[in-house]
Amino acid sequence: MKDKRRKIGQPDMSNERKIAYFSMEVGLETDIPTYSGGLGVLAGDTIRSAAELNVPMAAVTLLHREGYFYQRLDENGVQTEEPVQWVVDDFLEPLDQVVTVDLEDRQVKVKAWRYQIKCSGKNHVPVYFLDTDLPENGDWDRTLTNHLYGGDTYYRLCQEIILGIGGVRMLRALGHNQIDRFHMNEGHAGFLTLELLKEHCEAAGRDSISDEDIEAVRSRCVFTTHTPVPAGQDKFPIEEVEKALKNHLCLQVKDLILQNGTLNMTYL
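RESULT FIELD:
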């Protein structure tokens, strides 16, 4: 009799995913500090609802080994912040798959950890946490999935490239090739659209992007913004985008995604 048990680290193909839900932060448990507030709590609630409603979803986020921060208030109400420490292995299952994302002139390796949300029925929703803290990566690259909303603008830009581009590549590596809709919870994951453009062009055997490609990608994407005021939108100078992405096919359409020489992730 064959052993039908799935080995740890292998993709679960028992229930093909049709929707990919991307969020920079996800609130799943109090002891998993990969969220800072309402955006992450909403993401967690959305994913749990998908499991309860039998929606064939997979979710993607970053690992945030050091979380957001632990807040302390003194008697005068003054806040101080401390790093959050948590043991990843206590909550998440490591997966074997590794993908690469090009940053500048180097390749950054990305692995994933899985958290399964299960309900009373047979449906479950896997949440994939992307992690760059691998010995194959350089010291700075290993920190890219450490802090939620940490560092300067270039650090944030590279984080969002890992989330969007690395997230799509990880889904493919895990066998999720039949996804119909990509839902971006805020603009942080906007780079996934550019990776989908690249996929669409390559599948058609072209090395240039057409209007048809753009419309095909747009029809597969859903976007939710929670803070439409300017302060809530990530913006990156085109010089930083070109430095980070170098030869990515998406730079062909940079004139379509820029506003006054700046990449606005909500506009993207």
